[in-house]
Amino acid sequence: MTDRMAAPVVGAVRTGYRHRLGLSLTALAMTLVLGIAYLVFGVFELNPADRKIQVQVHFDQSGGILPDRDVTLRGVPVGRVTSVDLTGDGVVAVASIDAQTKIPQGAEVRVAGLSLAGEQYLDFRPSTDDGPYLADGAVISTSDTSTPVPLSDLMHNLDGMLAQIDPAEVQVIVEELGVSPEAPEKLSDIIDGGTFLISTLDSVLPQTVSVLNTSKVVLNTLAEGSPGMQTTSANLSGLLQGVESMDQGFRTFVDNVPGTLGAVDSIIADNSPTMVQLLGNLATVSQMAYVRVPALQEFFFPTERDGSTLEAIGSAFRDGGIWAYVNLYPRYTCDYNLPRRPPSVPDFPEPYLYTYCDNQDPSVLIRGAQNAPRPPGEEDEAVIPPGVDPARTADPTPIGPLSIPLTYGGPPAEYIHPR
């Protein structure tokens, strides 16, 4: 079989070796085609089958947006700005957007920047994903658009901020920074970090405002639950101390685990020949117990009769003693019509399977076997099945390599098991 499977592979390798020049040229051609396709479709993003829609976006002022800049949807590129023209009361930018992109009408449009240095782009920020959506030729008015703060307003606000700075405090900061030779680098790191923080917060301004409002609620809740948290901390400290005190016991437990697992492994290995039959018997027992849950429920917690087994057992143990009732008169019993074996013969027979009472008198059924609730479909199984041998016994007990031989009279008194 191995030769038949390897023959096609060997033949293919030999054929490829004979035509290695042609295969090399084919591989080079495929590489060239793939490279051109990557440049056209991946780098230059040219797609002949791609369909675009044109959307006019009106602004009060340009905000620095220029043609051929990105158009994004929540920061994800979906098109390009094709033109920016003046109007009577502002500017209009024409955005070419992928027709497969669904942008809800009424979405906020703003001119955003990748950094403080510029690199503006057109960003759509819809508040919902539900329609209707923008179509080809749609017009967005200035009420739904926004642009960055103009430089004149920025300088005016900066002048107001500088007017609030105390020169004496600035002098103290300068003196503190001059203590160490690394002060210029530290100041540069502080400015760079502040610039990065401000630019990041500006790009996620609505989310930042939402976080601040939510944080206020969270901090108020934490302040109200401070006593409970202190109690929890104290309880947790006591718990961890208890865990620490049991560290040695845990280490002892971990050290004993390999030996215990080894003993379990030995038990499984010793009983492996009969394990399958044992598991099958356990599955049968589990299934029989599951379908007879109503009978067990009636036995311990009866609903169709007075009293229960647990109450009967509990009534026997009371007043500091064990109480029992003895009836001196013999009771009417049932003859099961099965061969009787003398109890003095030590031959270890298997038990009978069908020990049913032929007498239907309820007083004879001491255990109430015929009256116990049964699973659906087994209501008539309280009698011996038709056509079976009434004297049939259970299957012989499975014999494994570690089983003790039960010969007539039992095993020898000094029996040594082979290992």
Automatic annotation (TrEMBL):
Annotated TM spans: 21-44
InterPro entries: Mce/MlaD (IPR003399), MlaD_Phospholipid_Transporter (IPR052336)
Keyword Manganese in record: no
Domain Mce/MlaD: 52-126
Record key words, sorted: Membrane, Transmembrane, Transmembrane helix
Residue ranges of the region described as Disordered: 369-404
PANTHER family: INTERMEMBRANE PHOSPHOLIPID TRANSPORT SYSTEM BINDING PROTEIN MLAD-RELATED (PTHR33371), MCE-FAMILY PROTEIN MCE3F (PTHR33371:SF16)
Name listed for the protein in its UniProt record: MlaD family protein
Species, as recorded: Rhodococcus artemisiae
